[in-house]
Design brief:
Blueprint: H1 5-26, H2 42-65, E1 68-69, H3 70-77, H4 81-89, E2 103-104, H5 121-127, H6 132-139, H7 151-156, H8 160-170
Antiparallel strand pairs: 1-2
Helix pairs in contact: 1-2, 5-8
């Protein structure tokens, strides 16, 4: 199976982020974490790394499985496959590569609207320190900053500025 450089980068970033969080916890002063050993063993670290890799693989597969195949995206948007590539290159769409080809997370599309593709994805990507997987999970999660609505819902209503502000807060 071959994956694109962007997908590989996104996966590495997600894994490293999880590993960084673990390292911060593992090396935190013990007063904050009573009852834990002073430092995990190499075996424990390897087990944790394996669980983290499996968790990321499951999360990625869940997003991939609910995403729209590339050919269907061209049909939905009534554009050529080349135009889909242009939208992807300009980050006005995002996609995951997988065993059945590229798929586009479904939060990017509002099938009930006159304009099927939501606007502002490029601005959200620029504001949020995440890859496609992290962005997709964030888009589907109710957000207190957005009055409990999901960023995907707010983006579909056209309030790109509110979603960009919420995305900017993630990295702050």
């Amino acid at each position: 199976m071959s994956i694109s450089a962007d997908t590989r980068r996104n996966l590495v970033e997600a894994f490293e982020h999880g590993l960084d969080e673990f390292t911060a916890v593992a090396t935190a002063p013990r007063a904050d974490l009573p009852g834990l050993p002073t430092r995990p063993s190499a075996t424990e670290l390897a087990e944790i790394e394996g669980r983290n890799r499996a968790r990321l693989a499951r999360a990625r597969q869940a997003v991939y499985d609910t995403s729209v195949p590339r050919g269907e995206v061209a049909h939905l948007l009534d554009v050529s496959p080349n135009q889909v590539s242009n939208l992807l290159a300009s980050q006005r769409l995002v996609a995951l590569d997988g065993p059945d080809g590229q798929r586009f997370p479904d939060w990017q599309f509002d099938l009930g609207a006159q304009r099927v593709r939501v606007d502002g994805i490029d601005r959200v990507m620029a504001a949020m320190p995440a890859g496609v997987l992290g962005l997709s999970q964030w888009m589907a999660t109710p957000n207190a900053t957005l009055d409990g609505r999901t960023p995907a819902h707010v983006l579909a209503t056209g309030d790109v500025d509110a979603v960009v502000a919420a995305a900017s807060a993630v990295g702050a």
